[in-house]
Amino acid sequence: MLDISFVLLYLNKDGPGEGGTPVIIPKKDEKKMKEMFKINEFNLMASDMIALNRTLPDVRPEGCKNMIYPNDLPRTSVVIVFHNEAWSTLLRTVHSVIDRSPRALLEEIVLVDDASQMDFLKLPLDEYVSKLEVPVRVVRMEQRSGLIRARLKGASVSTGQVITFLDAHCECTTGWLEPLLARVGPNKRTVVSPAIDVISDDTFAYAGSDVQLGGFSWNLHFNWVPIPKKEMERRKGDLTLPFRTPTMAGGLFSIDRDYFQEIGTYDAGMDIWGGENLEMSFRIWQCGGTLEIAACSHVGHVFRKAAPYTFPGGRSHVIHKNSRRLVEVWMDEFKDFFFTVSPEMARVDYGNITSRLALRRKLQCKPFSWYLETVYPDAIPRHYYSLGEVRNVDTDKCLDTRGRKANKKVGIANCHGQGGNQIFSYTADKEIKTDSLCLDVAKRGGPVMMITCHLEKGNQMWDYDPEKLSLIHVATNQCLDKARGKNRKAPSMRDCRHSYSQQWLLHNATLPEISL
Ligand code: UDP
Ligand code: MN
User: How confident is the model at residue 119 (pLDDT cuts 50, 70, 90)?
Assistant: First the structure.
């Protein structure tokens, strides 16, 4: 295996995936391909065909390409944690770091094996990396620990002034490192992520993408959000300047070693995966730091639709526990909002957080209300009449997003009391809102769509009559009604008659009502 990959490394210049092009698997291999896909939840067969040092397109904004950087940039250790990673993706990450980082800036690469089970990740990996021209250290967790504690281990054995974390299925493009170090070097309290490009989980094609900022959904999952006008204006049209971002994706970022310590590294009480990126984001902002995306640094990442590995204790339990810890430590009075959206989180055993609370006190961090006002005003509605299910009096059924995203019809389903898809807020701006989507009616008779909220009233403005219990769509002067006719799974819009079918109970689960 090792000899073959060295051969591939040097002979395959016109081979599959070169230049970031997609790999197409011949029809005859499709069955095998699908089998192999399950191992890592990406197209392993395609990845294995691509050279470990393939070429990539230069997707940076033009102005980045001739940028001159100071010659006193700090050196970085690159820490890559992995559990059961594929050989080809892991080593392609390593080679892309070595090939595209100025040697003077790269202290070492640290690979942290989080108790992987594959044999090739043991001795063969040690031997392979020992032959590389940059010091690569492999350290191993004694037992499966999750990415948080694995990164802590990697950080503790590394020595560079800056620590740069990467996932184990990344590819760094030309000039990726300098923009990160150029921000962290002079600004110790600035934590910087690259612009993260998409490596297709299906074809391994490399697609440069426009920068989006990090946000989070009401159920505390990281998401990408468009760059607000204000942030665009702050940068005055200069495409090479870094963006300030409310949160980070978490897999890829650079941080000054001393600041990493000072700010409280990670919450080591978090398990496996999830929530740690939001926790760190809130902590950085609330405790006086800055979180940025360096527009000139482009690194590709294989985004997967599912995790290929186990979550000891159960996936949902682990994620709820991690989220609960960050809510308890950082979110003050807003935690009730998140408990309403995720009632399961409010029930989970989340362990001891005393030391994290002590850290917050020691660092004299600002309240979450400051974060919401200053850093991320669009995160959750600050003023609202209700938050919870929207229940029809006639049918006893609830509005339900049915897990659908923007530009789809809102649904109706049996009320389940489990939050999530049945949580809507009737806001002080008179929207019926769920996450960043608002119920929107474009013409008389419906349909009722979920459209990105625009705060311009129009088709998204509703009056609620707390006595008649009716939800009146202002622009059409019609009322939200139960499902009718052929479509039993979506509400209808009818002229207002104040029948039971047009009566809706807006549930205000835990927060005091703000009266209209
Ligand atoms: N990882 C780990 N231990 C775990 C879970 C994940 O070391 O228990 C590693 C994983 O191999 C990857 C990184 O942590 O390099 C981030 O995980 P993943 O890529 O699955 O997260 P995603 O990018 O999908 O958010
Ligand atoms: Mn990943």
Answer: very high
